[in-house]
């Protein structure tokens, strides 16, 4: 068994023993989500009537968490006279229905409202139906109030339509193949702000009720899931871009920090208008932050809702930015709102475009390398790992639920498809095709073939094969690249092979690609066309290449295995013009334990011009895990870019050495950047000495913007399995409930269960968690359920059994916790410490052996293959 294998097994044991749990992944791009059970193909429903207009007049009750509303729909039959119209309406208590066409009766279920007319409505005849109702929405419309644990004076509500939540607060035909103009009228306390789609027509206070009536109208048709209402207490910033009014609304608490998050909006909008070639299509663009928002953001027409956690303080330097989220949601105003996927199988036409245009803006603002780095992260962190677990195509109809489509295929893989098209067609033709696509299908629904036809019409290139490979079939190319220098012929031979296609799932991938050789100061490119499972390419060179690169321009989405000797990797790491090549080289050198590899990585960490390479070098040194690598990291803490500095600290956290612990404690106490202090706290989680414990407790009890450090400390404490920390964590959770968002509070509660697992008397923790089951926030209740499973206390069994039969998310969570409780085997801190001591001793033995190995291998490095990417 190799040293790496032993270390890997020990580290795996440590992870298991410490109860490490995966970070929560937002529904946007769930790269590792398991395949949902196969289902029957899904298609857009028939459009019996054409909805012309929807008017919603709503009065929310913030105390009762209910709404009273009248929704008026104007529609006309499309192809034949219609007597029955069925609306989506979820648990709406209908009080009355009035119609311009005689109505025989109406009937409600929990999901539908059926209208039966006395006589069939003739084709084309407009009918107006007004439906008055009350509702206590569980989805679609959400309240955030002080009695729910949110800050006093910041009560607000917001709506979420995607995918099918709109019918929880107004009746409609709820599918993205239906568009209409809309109006929203809302009655709220006079000191509240009301936001909605389109233009504000006016506001007036009723002298009798004291409520303010605010009237909004969206006069261009859009789909139901983009209808939005936000009302509450907000701080406003205003701006403009090319004549488009911009509004930025945040909780008053964040007034000082809010400019940080919206500083790029005007520039993004201006760039998109120039890049896309179509003016911004709506009356205004507002953004509003929501407490405890479900996702990162939602691109409602002309009104984007965002998580309040996108607000950040100056102290984080460049580690936090709202620019990516801002750019993504703003791109949706064209791709998703102006044109909208006809059904969820074509979701990538919304999300792939928004993802790619975010990268394009990064390239515009910061240079091409910034765009390529975004694509690199998407490929390595999301698409390639996701494709290993799922070979579903991008356009996929047999999903179980619409949310199953919101994974790596729609977002980063869709983005990569656009990048490959742009690379093949060239930037100018690509822009012309996108402009044609948008103008031809403006304010309508689209499918993938609409995009293909526009691309073909502009370029003259048949793209059926491209879309068949990349969009209608799954997978990505799994490539093995080999190169060989033929000295006598002065030829470089490059062999490219790919996995055999999977019948019915993946196709043989064919694509153009550049092969590049660096010979001294010369760069020689060879254009190749991959068309077979395996093929050889030859091209002339003036001499033996120092570096060989496959796809140096980064135009092909693929998993590439290209073995290279270590000297070539070291040379590749120094190529100033090749960011992606340097990243590949740094990663490959992390698998080398030689002093030369460590020296090369240390040089990149302290000398490379791009923060991404410095970060990759720091990560690779952590992978090496040697004393020399540790010394290199300790000597490299003074990084000019906070992103590189954070990675150095994170890499130090991978070690279990006194020197690393000393540095981490110092950083946790002194670094002015709270995110870097947080990285140090994560690294200290494994240390059980008094000084490390004190650092964790200081952060747990201390103050920081949005309590970021307290949250990080609570998570770190949850990995310690130290009963001595149980009481301080319990005290902190009691004291901070009203300071932490429900989602974050719910995420840290399981730490309490893990810490108290080894306590002799678990009663205080169990009683606290039982109280949390009554919290108004579902995220807190779910966190408490998970914590009860982690606690290992049989006294929690009756509580969980009572919850196991409940509907929604509660029942499944309780069943999972019960299973955890039944199978739990306590893992003692002593056992954890023993494993760590073994790991430390193993590293020392390895260091002693390494000197001998390097002496023996000193003369054999030059031509021996090593691991490397493209």
Summarize this structure briefly.
By secondary structure, the protein is of the alpha+beta class.
Question: Can you walk through the features of this model?
Answer:
The chain is α+β, with helices and mostly antiparallel strands. It has a seven-stranded mixed β-sheet with strand order 4-7-2-1-10-13-12, with no helix packed on it. α7 (409-425) packs across α8. It is globular, with a radius of gyration of 29 Å. The two termini are 29 Å apart. Residues 1-37, 825-829 and 853-867 have low confidence and may be disordered.
What general outline do the C-alpha atoms trace? globular
- Head-to-tail CA distance between termini: 29 Å
Share in β-strands: 15-25%
Q: Flag low-confidence runs.
A: 1-37, 825-829, 853-867
Alpha carbon gyration radius: 29 Å
Report the biggest beta sheet as strand number plus sense, adding barrel if it closes: 7 strands, mixed
CATH class descriptor of the largest domain: Mainly Alpha
- Named at the architecture level, the CATH assignment of the largest domain is Alpha Horseshoe
Strand order within the widest beta sheet: 4-7-2-1-10-13-12
**Record field, number of beta strands:** 30
Find the CATH superfamily of the largest domain.
Leucine-rich Repeat Variant
Whole-number count of domains: 3
Given the helix and strand composition, which structural class is it? alpha+beta
Tally of separate helices: 27
Determine the mean pLDDT: 92
Task: Give the topology, please.
Blueprint: H1 3-17, E1 49-61, E2 66-77, E3 82-88, E4 93-99, E5 103-108, E6 112-121, E7 127-135, E8 141-144, E9 156-159, E10 179-189, E11 193-196, E12 199-205, E13 211-223, E14 229-232, E15 235-241, E16 244-250, H2 258-261, H3 265-276, E17 285-290, E18 297-298, E19 303-307, H4 323-331, E20 339-341, H5 348-366, H6 368-389, H7 409-425, H8 427-440, E21 444-446, H9 448-459, H10 464-470, E22 478-486, E23 491-498, E24 511-519, E25 522-530, E26 534-540, E27 547-550, E28 559-562, E29 564-565, H11 566-572, H12 579-589, H13 595-607, H14 611-624, H15 627-634, H16 642-652, H17 658-670, H18 674-684, H19 690-701, H20 708-718, H21 726-735, H22 742-755, H23 763-772, H24 778-791, H25 797-804, H26 810-823, H27 829-857, E30 865-866
Parallel strand pairs: 1-10, 16-17, 17-19, 20-21, 22-28
Antiparallel strand pairs: 1-2, 2-7, 3-6, 4-7, 5-6, 8-9, 9-14, 10-13, 11-14, 12-13, 15-16, 18-19, 22-23, 23-26, 24-25, 24-27, 29-30
Helix pairs in contact: 1-27, 3-4, 4-5, 5-6, 5-7, 6-7, 7-8, 8-9, 11-12, 12-14, 13-14, 13-15, 14-15, 14-16, 16-18, 17-18, 17-19, 18-20, 19-20, 20-22, 21-22, 22-24, 23-24, 24-26, 25-26
């Amino acid at each position: 068994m190799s040293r790496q294998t032993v270390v890997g097994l020990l580290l795996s044991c440590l992870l298991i023993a410490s109860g490490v749990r995966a970070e929560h992944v937002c529904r946007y791009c769930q790269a590792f989500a398991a395949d949902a059970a196969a289902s029957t193909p899904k298609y857009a429903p028939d459009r019996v009537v054409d909805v012309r207009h929807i008017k919603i007049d709503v009065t929310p009750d913030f105390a009762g968490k209910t709404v009273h509303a009248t929704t008026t729909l104007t529609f006309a039959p499309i192809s034949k006279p219609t007597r029955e119209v069925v609306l989506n309406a979820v648990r709406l208590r209908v009080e009355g229905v009035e119609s311009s066409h005689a109505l025989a009766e109406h009937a409600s279920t929990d999901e539908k409202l059926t209208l039966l007319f006395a006589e069939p409505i003739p084709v084309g005849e407009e009918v107006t139906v007004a439906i008055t109702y009350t509702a206590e929405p569980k989805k679609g419309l959400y309240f955030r109030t002080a009695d729910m644990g949110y800050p006093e004076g910041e009560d607000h509500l917001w709506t979420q339509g995607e995918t099918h939540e709109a019918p929880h607060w107004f009746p409609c035909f709820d599918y993205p193949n239906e568009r209409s103009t809309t109006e929203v009228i809302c009655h709220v306390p006079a000191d509240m702000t009301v936001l909605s789609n389109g233009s504000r027509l006016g506001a007036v206070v009723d002298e009798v009720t004291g409520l303010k009536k605010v009237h909004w109208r969206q006069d261009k048709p859009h789909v139901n899931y983009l209808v939005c209402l936000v009302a509450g207490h907000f701080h406003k910033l205003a701006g403009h871009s090319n004549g488009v009014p911009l509004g930025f609304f945040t909780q008053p608490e964040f007034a000082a920090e809010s400019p940080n998050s919206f500083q790029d909006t005007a520039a993004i909008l201006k760039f998109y208008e120039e890049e896309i070639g179509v003016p911004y299509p709506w009356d205004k663009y507002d953004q509003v932050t929501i407490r405890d928002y479900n996702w990162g953001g939602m691109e409602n027409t002309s009104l984007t809702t965002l998580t309040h956690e996108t607000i950040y303080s100056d102290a984080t330097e460049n580690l936090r930015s709202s620019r990516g989220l801002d750019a993504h949601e703003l791109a949706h105003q064209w791709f998703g709102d102006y044109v909208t996927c006809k059904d969820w199988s074509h979701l990538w036409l919304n999300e792939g475009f928004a993802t790619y245009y975010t990268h394009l803006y990064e390239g515009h603002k910061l240079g091409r390398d910034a765009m390529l780095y975004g694509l690199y992260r998407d490929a390595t962190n999301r698409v390639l790992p996701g494709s290993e677990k799922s070979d579903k195509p991008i356009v996929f109809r047999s999903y179980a639920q619409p949310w199953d489509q919101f994974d790596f295929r729609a977002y980063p893989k869709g983005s990569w498809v656009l990048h490959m098209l742009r690379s093949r067609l060239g930037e100018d033709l690509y822009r012309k095709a996108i402009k044609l696509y948008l103008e031809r299908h403006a304010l309508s629904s689209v499918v993938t073939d609409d995009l293909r036809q526009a691309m073909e019409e502009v370029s003259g290139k048949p793209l059926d094969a491209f879309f068949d490979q990349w969009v209608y079939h799954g997978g990505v190319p799994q490539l093995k690249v080999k190169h060989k220098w033929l000295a006598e012929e002065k030829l470089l031979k490059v062999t490219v092979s790919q996995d055999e296609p999977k019948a019915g799932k993946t196709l043989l991938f064919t694509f153009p690609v550049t092969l590049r050789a660096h010979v001294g100061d010369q760069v020689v490119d060879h254009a190749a066309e991959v068309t077979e499972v395996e093929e050889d390419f030859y091209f002339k060179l003036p001499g033996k290449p120092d570096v060989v690169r496959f796809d140096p321009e980064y135009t092909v989405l693929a998993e590439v295995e290209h073995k290279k000797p270590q000297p070539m990797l070291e040379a590749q790491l120094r190529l100033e013009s090749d960011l992606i090549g340097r990243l590949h080289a740094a990663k490959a050198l992390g698998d080398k334990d030689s002093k030369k590899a460590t020296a090369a990585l240390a040089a990149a960490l302290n000398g490379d011009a791009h923060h991404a390479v410095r970060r990759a070098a720091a990560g690779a040194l952590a992978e090496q895990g040697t004393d020399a690598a540790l010394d290199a990291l300790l000597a490299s803490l003074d990084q000019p870019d906070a992103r590189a500095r954070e990675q150095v600290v994170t890499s130090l956290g991978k070690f279990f050495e006194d020197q690393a612990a000393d540095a981490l404690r110092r950083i946790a106490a002194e670094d002015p950047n709270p995110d870097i202090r947080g990285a140090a706290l994560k690294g200290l989680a494994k240390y059980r000495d008094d000084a490390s414990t004190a650092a964790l407790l200081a952060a747990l009890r201390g103050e920081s913007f949005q309590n970021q450090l307290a949250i990080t400390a609570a998570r770190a404490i949850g990995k310690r399995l130290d009963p001595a920390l149980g009481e301080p964590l319990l005290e902190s959770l009691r004291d901070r409930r009203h300071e932490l968002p429900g989602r974050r509070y719910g995420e840290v509660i399981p730490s309490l269960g893990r810490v108290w697992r080894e306590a002799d008397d678990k009663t205080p923790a169990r009683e606290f968690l039982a109280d949390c089951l009554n919290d108004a926030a579902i995220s807190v209740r779910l966190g408490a359920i998970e914590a009860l499973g982690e606690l290992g206390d049989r006294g929690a069994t009756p509580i969980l059994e009572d919850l196991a039969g409940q509907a929604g998310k509660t029942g499944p969570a309780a069943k999972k916790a019960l299973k955890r409780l039944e199978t739990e085997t306590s893992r003692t801190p002593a056992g954890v410490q023993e494993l760590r001591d073994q790991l430390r001793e193993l590293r020392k033995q390895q260091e002693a052996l390494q000197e001998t190995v390097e002496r023996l291998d000193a003369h054999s490095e030059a031509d021996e293959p090593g691991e490397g990417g493209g």
